[in-house]
Write a structure and sequence with these properties.
Strand content: 25-35%
Radius of gyration: 24 Å
CATH topology of the largest domain: Rossmann fold
CATH superfamily of the largest domain: P-loop containing nucleotide triphosphate hydrolases
Number of strands: 19
Shape: globular
Structural class: alpha+beta
Number of domains: 2
Order of helices and strands: EEEHEEEEHHHEHEHEEHHEHEEEEEEE
Distance between the termini: 41 Å
Largest sheet: 6 strands, mixed
Strand order of the largest sheet: 7-8-9-3-10-11
Number of helices: 9
CATH architecture of the largest domain: 3-Layer(aba) Sandwich
Helix content: 10-25%
């Protein structure tokens, strides 16, 4: 595969404040990357540096093996062949769909411009809405217009800055999957910026999780979910509980958690264990019975919070026919397929 984007130890400053520090990231042609993290972590700053809106204080950014940013040099944004989809879509209200999609194609001859617009409208399924104005479209349709406009000039890379933030929660994940399918079908390299792990998982091949301007962990969605390198990653990506345990204090729980398997445990050894909802299975007849502390109905399932003897809670997702009241004892088995621990 061909490397499309490379960030090498990139730092971006605002006056004396370092917004992003020593970030390295690579994307191959056709890959979809994601800059994920809480507000203020530096993800939008990095996206703006890739787009050419911000200079870098250290490191280098290359696009398709061509240097586009380093200290003292910044290729102008309009020369980078970068497409951008903004959080609010930034559509021109006085232009119809066709006019918005063709806005950046004025250098093309009239016939070529018309053909390119028609192709983009077919691509995003909006040919029938070509004469409508933005206010006549749904949020999902506006998002598709913004995507078509960004793809029309055939950019080297597509940058998406919180593109689903203004949409309903249910629509976000659906559109993220649709956009992924569209980009993959056309071999478009892209980077998504989001604080929403569900969008990141639905759309991305590779995720860089940031915190306070630093890269905490990078990998596939599967790797971040199943092999978090820190408590922050475990807590930010997916649901679950991080249990604080001391071996030997509760032998029944130790056996259930598998803490006495393999090497002899050290009595009183303190550790932190990540337990996801799928690690806790409702199992009638189990000797391990835990009281229900809270429950949330999710249609096809219930998400139960169960209390441990020391007051800590774990989560269990059970089918919706398993309906227990708060205070009832739920028989469960712990079925960890991959044990993740953090040392104190």
């Amino acid at each position: 595969m061909t490397r499309q984007l490379e960030l090498r130890q990139v730092s971006v400053n605002y006056a004396s404040f370092t917004a992003a520090r020593d970030i390295s990231l690579n994307l191959e042609t056709g890959q979809i990357g994601c800059l994920l993290g809480p507000s203020g972590c530096g993800k939008t700053t990095l996206l703006r540096a890739i787009a050419g809106f911000e200079p870098v204080a250290a490191g280098e950014i290359s696009l398709h093996d061509h240097l586009i940013s380093c200290p003292g040099f910044r290729l102008p944004s309009e020369q980078r062949r970068v497409g951008m989809v903004f959080q609010d879509f930034a559509l021109f209200p006085h232009l119809n769909v066709r006019g918005n999609v063709g806005f950046g194609l004025n250098s093309l001859a009239a016939d070529a411009r018309r053909a390119r617009i028609d192709k983009m409208l077919r691509l995003v399924g909006l040919s029938a809405q070509s004469d409508r104005y933005p206010h006549e479209l749904s949020g999902g349709q506006q998002q598709r217009v913004a995507l078509a406009r960004a793809l029309a000039p055939d950019p080297e890379i597509l940058l998406l800055d919180e593109p689903f933030a203004s949409l309903d929660t249910d629509l976000r994940e659906q559109l993220a999957c649709e956009v992924r399918d569209l980009l993959k079908a056309n071999n478009v390299t892209a980077i998504l910026v989001t604080h929403d792990q569900h969008e990141a998982f639905a759309m991305s091949d590779h995720i860089a999780l940031l915190k306070d301007g630093e890269l905490i962990q990078a990998g596939t969605p599967y790797q971040l979910y199943h092999d978090p390198v820190s408590e922050f990653v475990a807590g930010f990506v997916g649901q679950g509980a991080i249990l604080r345990l001391a071996t030997g204090e509760n032998p029944e729980l130790d056996r259930a958690l598998g803490l006495n398997e393999g090497e002899d445990p050290v009595p009183g050894e303190r550790l932190k264990l990540l337990l996801r909802p799928e690690d806790v299975s409702y199992q009638p007849g189990s000797d391990l019975r835990l009281p229900v502390a809270a429950r949330t109905f999710r249609g096809a399932s219930y998400l139960y919070a169960l209390s441990l003897p020391d007051g800590q809670r774990i989560l269990c997702q059970a089918p919706n026919h398993v309906s227990l009241a708060i205070g009832d004892a739920m028989p469960v088995a712990l079925v960890q397929r991959r044990r993740v621990t953090f040392r104190n």
